[in-house]
Design brief:
The chain is an all-alpha fold and 171 residues long. Helices cover 65% and strands 0% of the residues.
Amino acid sequence: MKTFKKGSFIFTMLIILYMLLLFVLSFTYGERTRLVPLVILTPGLLLGIFLLIGEYFPALLRQTDVDLVNIRRSGLEAEASLDRGGVLIGRRGFLIVTGYLIGFSVCILLVGFLIAVPIGVFVFIKVFGRQSWLKSLAITAATWAFIYLLFVVVMNFDIFEGILFGEIVIL
């Protein structure tokens, strides 16, 4: 079957065209207003183009495959706990993800975004992704730098600083 007739190719192309339309339309907004759609759509378009290229070069997409759900299970045990979509079934997986999200939310509440985001990213990559220290730290630093530069430097937003740093005063 030719690549351009595959359902995933057509779907990806439609998504890219839609995002491209929104990207162009965002330039009709005010100078500060257009920043948010551009910030969201630019990486979305780049990832969509990457997926489109991956339709022609499947080996490229296979290099980026990750399975963070089954990293701690043996082969047979992992296969038995998965449904056809590769999602962890059961209460244990739900509790692990819920615990991580609650912990991340509490961390944001206590210390604010600029400290909680690197902590949350590092924990996720190191613990769930089982990546090396160097890769975990590099991705964490890049994520923090992106958020800081974009929201604090470029957009000049006041980012939530957390209860411990005086953002919310509890009487």
